[in-house]
Each structure stands twice: as structure tokens, then as C-alpha cells.
Design goal:
Arc Repressor Mutant, subunit A; 40% helix; 9 helices; D-Maltodextrin-Binding Protein, domain 2; alpha/beta; 13 strands; 3 domains
Length: 300
């Protein structure tokens, strides 16, 4: 019989992903000494050092820890699938679902999707983390997530994907007092001489630059930020215009300035919102149900 527990492996994975024992403890809502003792027990059992502890600056994985992290992610997913199979015998849909979501779209889509999903399947425990796409993809490939919700842009072939919402067209974002704010549609060429506030986070920044380049346009970037709300705030202050896909329901910035989204008449490649998982991996029941719920909730 194995001399370690799934709980110990889960604590190790949380510490590795969080980069510190304190962050892992907050994420799992347990005491930090519990995380530390579980990892030390694993190290003693395997005769390996899994983490390098840095005073006041978190932890990093050793090569042995990196190898164990991949294997532990697989084992935890298999354990989750076993639980789902056993519970299915009692017609109870329960278990865990780990979701990663690209940071620019998480606030717009995930709260509503998660609220609806919890209403249908209250026994499924969902963990959500948002972040940058390259980090999320690496974590998904390492087994940290069951699903990744993001745009279908620059995703590796190692991921399977299913569209959740297609035809998301870019728009121009303008301050309410802009000379073109009352237009129903406009072309990018009408704005290109004005300063651009660029949402500069991969892969969105390259996507927007590519749209402009495809029209033969070279923007004059006044400010660039990975924060969608900072971009909107700068536009609201009249410091430039922006091109975006994500469109919050409220046409106001954090500091209360009105914004206007204007459709673009240019022939621009739309974006597609997708759910991703590792190629060849059998989805757990919670993951499959969440994808089905998203497709139904976002339809139309």
C-alpha cells in the first residue's frame, strides 16, 4: 500500500502552483504547517527534495519536484474520475472541477456561468483561477486544471478544444465625447492617426496588432497595458482610442467616465471563445457537464 495520501499530493501541487506555502494554505483554506508537514512527509517517503525553500520569497521546484508535479496531477485527476464513477452509481453528480480562465474574459463570462452551474450541480466543488494564457496553458498541460476557458488564439496542438461562443467581433472603444462616438460603424483608418491605447497581453496584443497590419495600418501607441480596465480608463479620460473584443455590459470606467463601443466596418477576423483540455484525455463528468452548460448558457 502506498505510504502517502492524495491529500499530501494535493498540498504539494498547490504549493508548486502557488509558488509559496502561505499562498497554498490560503488557496486550500488550511493551516500553513499542514502544507509544510505534508510536503516533508512526501520528501521523506520518496527520499527526494521536491521543493527549494527560499526565506521570505516562496518555493521553487527541484527537477525531481517538476517530474512529480506532472505525475501527481495525472494521479489526482484519475482519483477524481474514480470518485465520479462511484458517485454515478448513486445518481449523484459531485466531485471537483478545476478551471483556468484567461484574465481579460473571466470577469465578463465566468461569474454568470459559475452561478448557473452551481445552481444545477451544487455538489460539484469548483475552483477558478484566472491569469495569463501562456501560464494557464502550461498549468493545464501539467494537470493543474480540468479545463481552460480562453480565446482560440495561439493555442498549442496538444490541447483539444470545443467552441463555446463564436463570432466575437472587435470594436472600437471611444470616449463619449469623441467626434466619431455617434457613428453606427466606422473604419480603423478613420482612427489610425489618433493615439491608440493597446491591450497588450498575450495573445490579445498580437491579435490586435495583426488586425491593424492586415488593413495596412500602423498604429501610434500612446499607452499599452495588460489590464483591460486600465485601457478602458485611459480611453475614458480622452487619452486615445482602443480596439477590443471583450465588451463589459456597463459603458463606464472604474472612475465613472462614459465610453462608447462602435462597430467596425472593416473585414476583421473574429475571435472564438473555447474550452480546452489535454489532447487524448478523457474528460471528467464535472468538466463535461460544465462545457455543456457553457454552450447552452452562451447560445445566442
Amino acid at each position: 500500500m502506498a505510504g502517502f495520501s492524495l491529500r499530501q499530493l494535493g498540498y504539494f501541487v498547490a504549493a508548486a502552483e502557488s509558488g509559496s506555502l502561505a499562498a497554498a494554505a490560503r488557496r486550500l483554506n488550511v493551516a500553513q504547517p499542514s502544507i509544510s508537514s505534508a510536503i516533508r512527509a512526501l520528501e521523506a517517503r520518496f527520499g527526494l527534495q521536491l521543493l527549494v525553500r527560499h526565506h521570505a520569497s516562496g518555493v521553487t521546484l527541484t527537477p525531481a519536484g517538476q517530474r512529480l508535479l506532472r505525475q501527481a496531477g495525472d494521479l489526482l485527476q484519475q482519483a477524481n474520475a474514480l470518485e465520479q464513477s462511484a458517485r454515478a452509481e448513486n445518481d449523484v453528480v459531485a466531485g471537483r472541477l478545476e478551471i483556468g480562465c484567461y484574465s481579460t474574459i473571466a470577469p465578463l463570462f465566468l461569474p454568470r456561468l459559475l452561478a448557473g452551474f452551481r445552481g444545477r450541480f451544487p455538489e460539484i466543488q469548483v475552483t477558478l483561477r484566472d491569469g495569463l494564457q501562456d501560464q494557464l496553458v502550461r498549468a493545464l498541460e501539467d494537470g493543474a486544471y480540468d479545463l481552460l476557458i480562453t480565446y482560440d488564439l495561439e493555442l498549442p496542438e496538444s490541447l483539444a478544444r470545443v467552441p463555446l461562443l463564436a463570432g466575437l467581433k472587435p470594436h472600437a472603444l471611444l470616449p463619449a465625447g469623441h467626434r466619431l462616438a455617434r457613428r453606427r460603424k466606422l473604419r480603423l483608418a478613420e482612427l489610425i492617426a489618433e493615439p491608440l491605447i493597446l491591450l497588450d497581453v498575450a495573445p490579445s496584443g498580437r491579435y490586435f496588432r495583426g488586425l491593424l497590419a492586415a488593413q495596412g495600418l500602423t498604429p501610434r501607441v500612446a499607452f499599452a497595458s495588460p489590464s483591460l480596465e486600465l485601457v478602458r480608463g485611459l480611453v475614458g479620460q480622452g487619452l486615445g482610442w482602443s480596439i477590443l473584443v471583450t465588451r463589459p455590459a456597463a459603458p463606464l470606467t472604474y472612475d465613472g467616465n462614459p465610453l462608447v463601443a462602435v462597430a467596425l466596418a472593416d473585414d476583421l477576423a473574429p475571435s472564438v471563445l473555447v474550452a480546452c483540455w489535454r489532447q487524448g484525455e478523457r474528460q471528467t463528468t464535472p468538466a463535461r457537464l460544465f462545457v455543456e452548460h457553457c454552450k447552452a448558457a452562451l447560445k445566442g
